[in-house]
TrEMBL record:
Domain of life: Bacteria
GO MF annotations, alphabetized: dihydropteroate synthase activity; metal ion binding
Protein's UniProt keywords contain Metal-binding: yes
Protein name, UniProt field: Dihydropteroate synthase
Native species: Limnoglobus roseus
GO CC, alphabetical: cytosol
Gene field: folP
């Protein structure tokens, strides 16, 4: 990557070079696949900042395979107090992980500056919220919905189809009037893909960010996902999350080394920050 990629998120302007931004995951849900509501979200958010998170991604609706949607009211009840309190205690930029325009709007009013939408802004009101607020946008590819996405996902060429979808959404959103520098595409690893399809996407991340996406920072979310256990033959373990951490770090470093992953959405912030810092240092010593 010859020049930094600019990402505008309301009052924030990031220039992302060889070192990716680390987006720490904060689940305000009772049924997340990774922590199942074990953590106090505010305390966990502050700990992630101490561990090295550049940004926080706060979500109130699980998107694990097979999960069901919650109401706008329930999602607001879960996330708004967390966003408001974290925004008061820290200057770390906050992302709201939601597919609902009303949740996004109220989250931004509470202090969020980024909208992370796993549906690629399917809510017809979401582009209006994004345009009006100038929020950063993570626009993800997903085949189906969280409830159906892992039921026999099919592609002829997963890399081309995901790339084409993200380019089409980029054109639609910028034609709507959204600032192109606010948009970060996300290939949606683990969302409507088989193990092999996920690996194909990861091996070809540089093919995602081409054409009109060439200067856009790409978000990569592989942290603790089930395909990692399957890919290394450790599925069915009594502690599946522990068996996914090493693979998560390996893929984060691979994405960084490829120059194609610019924002890493992760659970294990300290471990990822250390791995990326060491990779970045070694890269600098070689150039």
């Amino acid at each position: 990557m010859s020049t930094p990629r600019v990402w505008r998120c309301r009052q924030h302007r990031f220039e992302i070079g060889i070192r990716p931004l680390i987006l720490g995951i904060v689940n305000a849900t009772p049924d997340s696949f990774s922590d199942g509501g074990r953590y106090d979200p505010i305390a966990h958010a502050l700990q992630l900042i101490a561990d090295g998170a550049d940004l926080l991604d706060i979500g109130g609706e699980s998107t694990r395979p097979g999960s069901q949607s919650v109401t706008v009211e329930e999602e607001l009840h879960r996330v708004i107090p967390v966003i408001r309190e974290v925004a008061q205690q820290t200057h770390t930029p906050i992302s709201i992980d939601t597919s609902k325009a009303e949740v996004a709007r109220q989250a931004i009013d509470a202090g969020a500056v980024i909208i992370n939408d796993v549906t690629g802004l399917r809510d017809p009101a979401m582009p209006t919220v994004a345009k009006a607020t100038g929020a950063g946008l993570i626009v993800m590819h997903m085949q189906g919905t969280p409830a159906t996405m892992q039921i026999d996902p099919q592609y002829r060429d997963v890399v081309r189809e995901v790339s084409d979808y993200l380019k089409e959404r980029f054109r639609e959103l910028t034609d709507f009037g959204i600032d192109p520098e606010t948009i970060s595409p996300d290939p949606g690893i683990g969302f409507g893909k088989t193990v092999e399809q996920n690996l194909q996407l990861l091996a070809n991340l540089d093919r995602i960010g081409t054409g009109e996406l060439a200067d856009r920072p790409l978000t990569l979310g592989v942290s603790r996902k089930g395909f990692i256990s399957k890919a290394v033959g450790r599925s069915g373990s009594a502690d599946p999350i522990a068996n996914r951490v090493a693979g998560s770090l390996a893929l984060a470093c691979f994405g960084t080394a490829s120059g194609a992953a610019n924002i890493l959405r992760v659970h294990d912030v300290r471990e990822t920050a250390d791995a990326v810092a060491l990779y970045t240092r070694m890269h600098e010593l070689r150039t």
